[in-house]
């Protein structure tokens, strides 16, 4: 029973991390209709910025703020300088450019920060809570992870449902020409979408790195599992991204705990294939058509 409890709690905590990354993918998809395969590399880069700040003697929270601000700037620069060249063209062009960004940022991080493993601190304790004689695999940092993801999810829901900015971002993503005729500054909306998504991605990078070792490729596995979570929940649904992340986290935790960690990647692939075959829009997607 204790093993099941620890596996479940560990799965929830890990699933919240997948959900954070899936939220970044959902945000940029809703804002620009592009799947950003460079999201993980951008998050890795801003995590290194936070680590550099912390190692210079500043507190964790200063590094945390620098990483989020760095993500905001990096996302805006990437859209303005690179993605703007391929937006409006064939969708495959944008995919190839994001894959190139992924490789380029990893190489640049290895040159600037080094390719060795480095320890990244956590802002809260990593020791599991104790109830009597029972210690569970759920830490104060796990509470922080889940709380952060829920706050981001609610913020995204509020942004897209209740604000003019969110409406303009969605309109720009679906029909740039019509949006321009309606007076929407499409270029600015796309830049904001990339910047916001990079901030959420940076948060995911920090949550994943907390209490672990970081290196230029430490986000690679998260990219796969976060993408599966986003597809499972529905690329249009922030709540679906969180639900998808938690489902993936729990499923992979059970597979790892009872069947073997070597089957985790295969299980994620099986889930992705099953979702694409049975419900390609995702479990929580309700959108059949849109009006702009």
UniProtKB/TrEMBL annotation:
<keyword id="KW-0029">Amino-acid transport</keyword>
<keyword id="KW-1003">Cell membrane</keyword>
<dbReference type="InterPro" id="IPR001851">
    <property type="entry name" value="ABC_transp_permease"/>
</dbReference>
<keyword id="KW-0812">Transmembrane</keyword>
<dbReference type="GO" id="GO:0006865">
    <property type="term" value="P:amino acid transport"/>
</dbReference>
<comment type="similarity">
    <text>Belongs to the binding-protein-dependent transport system permease family. LivHM subfamily.</text>
</comment>
<dbReference type="GO" id="GO:0022857">
    <property type="term" value="F:transmembrane transporter activity"/>
</dbReference>
<dbReference type="Pfam" id="PF02653">
    <property type="entry name" value="BPD_transp_2"/>
</dbReference>
<dbReference type="GO" id="GO:0005886">
    <property type="term" value="C:plasma membrane"/>
</dbReference>
<keyword id="KW-0472">Membrane</keyword>
<keyword id="KW-1133">Transmembrane helix</keyword>
<keyword id="KW-0813">Transport</keyword>
<dbReference type="InterPro" id="IPR052157">
    <property type="entry name" value="BCAA_transport_permease"/>
</dbReference>
<protein>
    <submittedName>
        <fullName>Branched-chain amino acid transport system permease protein</fullName>
    </submittedName>
</protein>
């Amino acid at each position: 029973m204790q093993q099941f409890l620890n596996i479940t709690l560990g799965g929830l905590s890990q699933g919240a991390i997948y959900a954070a990354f899936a939220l970044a993918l959902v945000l940029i998809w809703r804002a620009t209709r592009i799947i950003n395969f460079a999201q993980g590399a951008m998050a890795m880069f801003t995590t290194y910025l936070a680590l550099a700040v912390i190692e210079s003697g500043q507190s964790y929270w200063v590094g945390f703020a620098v990483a989020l601000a760095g993500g905001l700037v990096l996302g805006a620069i990437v859209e303005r300088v690179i993605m703007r060249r391929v937006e409006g063209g064939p969708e495959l062009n944008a995919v190839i450019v994001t894959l190139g960004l992924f490789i380029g940022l990893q190489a640049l991080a290895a040159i600037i920060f080094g390719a060795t493993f480095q320890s990244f601190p956590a802002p809260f304790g990593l020791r599991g809570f104790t109830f009597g004689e029972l210690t569970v695999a759920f830490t104060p940092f796990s509470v922080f992870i889940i709380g952060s993801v829920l706050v981001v999810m609610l913020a995204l829901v509020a942004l897209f449902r209740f604000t003019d900015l969110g409406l303009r971002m969605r309109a720009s993503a679906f029909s740039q020409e019509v949006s321009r005729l309606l007076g929407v500054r499409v270029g600015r909306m796309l830049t904001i979408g990339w910047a916001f998504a990079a901030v959420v991605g940076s948060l995911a990078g920090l949550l994943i790195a907390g209490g672990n070792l970081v290196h230029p490729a430490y986000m690679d596995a998260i990219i796969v599992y976060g993408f599966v979570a986003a597809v499972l929940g529905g690329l249009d649904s922030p709540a679906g991204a969180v639900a998808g992340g938690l489902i993936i986290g729990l499923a992979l935790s059970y597979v790892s705990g009872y069947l073997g960690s070597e089957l985790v990647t295969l299980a994620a692939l099986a889930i992705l294939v099953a979702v694409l075959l049975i419900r390609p829009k995702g479990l929580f997607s309700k959108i059949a058509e849109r009006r702009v």
